Each structure stands twice: as structure tokens, then as C-alpha cells.
Fold:
Amino acid sequence: MRSSNPVFSRRGFSRDNGYAGFNTAAQAGYAQGNPYAQNPYAQQDVQQGAPPQAPAATGRMTMDDVVMRSALTLGTVAVGAALAWVLLPVSTTSYGLAFGAAIIAMVLALVQSFKRTPSPALILGYAAFEGVFLGVISEMYNSRWSGAPFQAVLGTMAVSAATLLVYKAGWIRVTARYARIGMAIAMAFILVMAVNLLLVAFGVAEDGGLRSFGPLGAIVGIIAIVLGAFFLTLDFKQIEDGIAYGAPRSESWLAAFGLTLTLVWIYVEMLRLVAIFSSND
Structure:
């Protein structure tokens, strides 16, 4: 059974601990030489042992769909960021607006994450508010470390391209075990960062604690970027499987949503890392 939570289903998990939305029975079918057994998107009799072939114009997801919707979602983030950069100069007021935009973006992302079906309005709304937040913090970093946002964009593109290269080359095999171990590490990292945030808020940890602008902060930032690259491999695998198994075209919105979440994660961490290295020059 596929998970009803797109955050986990897009990462390739099912309630039965299967991978890419397929349950244990599907994995058993694959092991017996029929990779399309129990395929939730199959349009043909699986006993024939042939790959599912979606009839022409039946609304099945393609790579073009994923690229188009990802471009639209990321473009919305970019437009929101550009407008915020131009219209909201660095000030206490803009920081407040950025915080508010981040909260709204998080709420929209959570609502979409728990919906059974993708909502383009929610996804694009998330992208717009996330863009406002990124525009303000990017301008803030640029005012102190000139050129940091541009370097962060280049760094994000480099990490994404390198991750896609090693994935397509087969140097990384996205298996259920790989995904479980990586997600366990990611959840532990997020938990530690949440605890660190509380300690900083209550004055127990000084100078940002683990998120300081020193060597420790740089190490934590590098770990976060590596985790972002891990998330990208799961995104690539989910997209690849969705296309191969004839997922509905609407699933391409979830693919765009997942890629946007991951790229925003990498960009924010890259921005901090650039600032840390610039501070130590």
C-alpha cells in the first residue's frame, strides 16, 4: 500500500516498508522475475510479464511533465525572491515579513504533504512565500557578504549536477536499505538541530551553538548539504519509477514539489556555508 503522506511516498516509502510505493508482494514479484507484479499504476495484466504500456494521451507522467512543473515551481520561487529583494530593503520590518512568509510556506507545505493528491495551488503558493523568505535572507547575507547569494546559487547547481551525474552513472544505487539508513540519519540531524535551536533560544548555547559561524558550523553545514544531495537521489529515483510505472500526470506536481523542497534546503545551507568561509577569510 502506498503511503498517504506524499512527503514519505515521494521519498519512496510505503507503510509496508516497501520501496517506491510498492509493497512487499511487489518486491517478491520482482525477485521472481516479474518487476511489474503489484504495480499500482499497471494498465496491463501483470501475468503477461510485459511492462505496463499506457495508451496514448491517457495522462501518464512523463519527464517533460516533471521538467515543466519543476521549472514553473522553481520559477515562482525565483520571482518571489526577486520581488522581495527589490521591494523589501534590509530592515527589521522585512525580517518580520520574511519570518511570516516562512511560516506560511511551512504551513502550505505541511498541508500539501498530508494531502492524498497534489494541489498545484498549494504547491505554487508554497513556492511564492518561500521565495519571499529566500529573497529577504539572501539580501541580508549579500549586505554583509557581498556575492554570497550568487555563490550559493552556483554551489546549489553544482551539487545538483554532481548528484544527478553520480546517480545516472549508477555509482549510487537507491535501495530500500539505502533510503532507510539515510532517512534515519536525516531525522536524527533535524532533531539535533531542533534541540540546538531551543538551547540557543534559551541562552544555554552561545553564538548559535552547532550553527555558529566557526569551524563547527561549517562541518554541520557540509553535513546538511550532503543530506540534501541524499534527498535528491531519492527524488530522482521516485521520478524515474513514477515514469516507468505509468504514474498519473498529476504526480509530476509532487515531483516538482519534492525537488523544490530539496533545492531550497541545499541553497539555504550553501548560503550559510559561503558566509562562514567568507567570515574566516
In short: The first helix runs from residue 6 to 9. The chain is about 70% helix and 0% strand.
